Amino acid sequence: MIRNPILPGFNPDPSICRVGEDYYIVTSTFEWFPGVQIHHSRDLVNWRLLTRPLVRKSQLDMRGDPDSCGVWAPCLSHDGERFHLIYTDVKRYGRTTVGGASGASLRDFHNYLVTCETIDGEWSDPVHLNSSGFDPSLFHDDDGRKYLLNQLWDHRPGRNRFAGIVLQEYCPRERRLIGERHNIFAGTPLGLTEAPHLYRRDGRYYLITAEGGTGWNHAVTMARSRDLLGPYELHPDTYILSSRTRPDAPLMRAGHADLVETPAGETYMAYLCGRPLPNRGRCVLGRETALQPMVWRDGWLWTLDGQGVPMREAPAPDLPPHPWPETPVRADFDADQLPIDFQWLRTPEPDAIFSLTARPGHLRLYGRETIGSLFTQSLVARRQQAFCYTASCAMEFEPRHFQQAAGLVAYYNGAKFHYLHVTHDAEIGRHIRVMSALPDSPQADAFSAPIAIPEGRVELRAEVDEERLRFAFRLDRQDWQWLPEQFDASILSDEATAPGAPNFTGAFIGMACQDVSGAGLHADFDWFDYRERDFSAA
User: Fold this and answer.
1) CB atoms within 10 A of CB 228
2) Per-residue three-class SS string for 247-267
3) Are 88 and 137 in contact (CB under 8 A)?
4) What are the DSSP calls for 16-54, one per residue?
5) What is d(CA 391, CA 410) in angstroms, rounded to the nearest whole number?
6) How far apart are CA 127 and CA 177, in angstroms?
7) Residue 476: its pLDDT value, please?
8) What is the pLDDT, as a whole number, of residue 497?
9) Closest by Cα among 512, 525, 514 to 368
10) Helix/strand/coil (H/E/C) assignment for every residue in 49-61
């Protein structure tokens, strides 16, 4: 049985690919580095995070990319010889006006291609393909020719910004697009047409797109044609998967899909979804990836029951079970590389913000720019993957004034976080408090009352129970001292935002260090612990 979502808490825009007995799903990483996440499975039930291929400055440099921009909608494919990975680096989403609305139609979507003979090898430097829109994918036709598809962005006044799906041939020998660009699909009245994937089956071309936006109106649209360039006729139901008219659906926001076939010919659809908190309507785990079987009937694709609704549990294919070892709950930072669960923000030069060798057995964060900076901030974190969890860490940090801080942060982006940090000022001395960035309040930030603490090692703790967040600290392994305040964890979601602002990333929990004095004071973290919990049973 497949229990959805198969990748809880991992960002979506999924692309799925099978090579032999191996299945791979790639998902977006936005402003988090390294770029693109590749999960691996042998049975479509059990998945492991295998690698992040964009690791070099030549492949990806997101310094200055706005929140929720960076890497969008990667697409993975294999042509029998090598893997091809297409991705977008979004450099501009639109300027923000008073009130938070997006006030510009100009956007910068740079689409790139990298290749590798092995999934976890060293990927090539990128080929810049175009910047005409986002959600690119590469289609390998039966005659060996390759075609790039992407959403077309139209900034002109009075035009449909989502101007359709364009197709253009890619020449591997010349490493560039060739020939004319063709708009093959204008979309349906639902609008916001994006995320194209093209397939060939029984003499026809099948096009899948996402429509309705990535929120509550999201849907998977299907069309087909005898000719590559169209015209494309719509599926009898138009939308083959959606939750938009079904408030009782177990998974909401369903859309942005891709297809894969098992060796037995079974078709499975990977798609994004969301699970809102009861009575809050906020998805604190962001947009997640789900998988379910589909059936071909009369030349069209359908869900098993024909209702076009996502499934919370779905039949698994007839493949041998292949579980993976459990991921350790504690990172001791004993190796010279970060555990794969951890990422940092934007910069391809991690040596400027952290070290695992300066003090062996510790993660050393160097104090850099303010938390929320778009350039060089020292923040190393992992994704929240459950509605309820406990995270803790042990830190040594001796600040000398108020411009130096380090600690444990529950983070969505620069406008949404709760930061339990140690700092210093002349009146109180060394102290601990919480700074919160509040996206849905007239007051942009808020601070808890400071609590004076002596010098020395301090352990920090966060407990999240759905929308409730509490912080604690302790010294010398004494009892935990809980801060009296309860914080709103639901702001760490796509839905807690100003209208028009991009919010796609999902919530993280991790460690941070700032020093805007220029001294570069560091904080040393001995370990970091993340455990999923069921507080309802307590």
Assistant:
1) 16
2) CCCCCEEEEEEEEEECCCCCE
3) no
4) EEEETTEEEEEE--BTEESB-EEEEESSSS--EEEE--B
5) 10
6) 10
7) 83
8) 81
9) 514
10) EEECCECCCCCCC
Position 536 pLDDT exceeds 80: no
- Residue 459's beta-bridge partner residues? 394, 474
Residue 248 token pair: 């009782």
The count of C-alpha atoms lying within 13 angstroms of the C-alpha of 464, restricted to the half-sphere facing its C-beta, is 28
- CA torsion through residues 454, 460, 465, 468, sign: positive
Residue 20 φ then ψ, to 5°? 65, -125
- In this predicted structure, what is the pLDDT of residue 307? 95
Encoded tokens for 347:
């910069």
- CA-CA distance, 16 to 129, in Å (whole number)? 21
Q: Which residues, listed in sequence order, are joined to residue 469 by a DSSP beta bridge? A: 464, 487
Tell me how far apart the alpha carbons of residues 495 and 476 are, in angstroms, rounded to a whole number: 40
Mapping DSSP to helix (H, G, I), strand (E, B) and coil, where does residue 288 land? strand
Give me the catalytic one of 89, 169, 194, 467: 194
DSSP for residue 65: P
User: Which one of 13, 288, 396, 459 is the catalytic residue?
Assistant: 13
pLDDT in tens, 214-270: 899 999 999 999 999 999 999 999 999 999 999 889 999 999 999 999 999 999 999
Cα-based angle 446, 451, 454 (whole degrees, multiple of 5): 140
Task: Give residue 415's pLDDT.
Answer: 93
The radius of gyration of the chain from alpha carbons, rounded to an integer in Å, stands at 23
Global pTM exceeds 0.85: yes
- What is the DSSP track for 185-246? E---TT---EEEEEEEETTEEEEEEEES-SSTT-EEEEEEESSTT-PPEEEEEEEEEE-TT-
| Residue 181: how many other CB atoms lie within 10 Å | 15
CATH dotted code for 2-314: 2.115.10.20
Mapping DSSP to helix (H, G, I), strand (E, B) and coil, where does residue 491 land? helix
Of how many residues is the chain composed? 538
CATH 2.115.10.20 positions along the chain are 2-314
Active site residue 194: yes
Residues carrying CATH 2.60.120.200, the chain: 330-537
User: Is 330-537 a domain of CATH 2.160.10.10?
Assistant: no
Q: Is 31 a catalytic residue?
A: no
Predicted local confidence at residue 101, as pLDDT: 38
Q: Which amino acid is at 395?
A: M
Q: Which amino acid is at 302?
A: W
Average pLDDT over residues 175-197: 97
The Cα 330–Cα 374 span in angstroms is 29
Q: Three-state DSSP class for 160?
A: coil
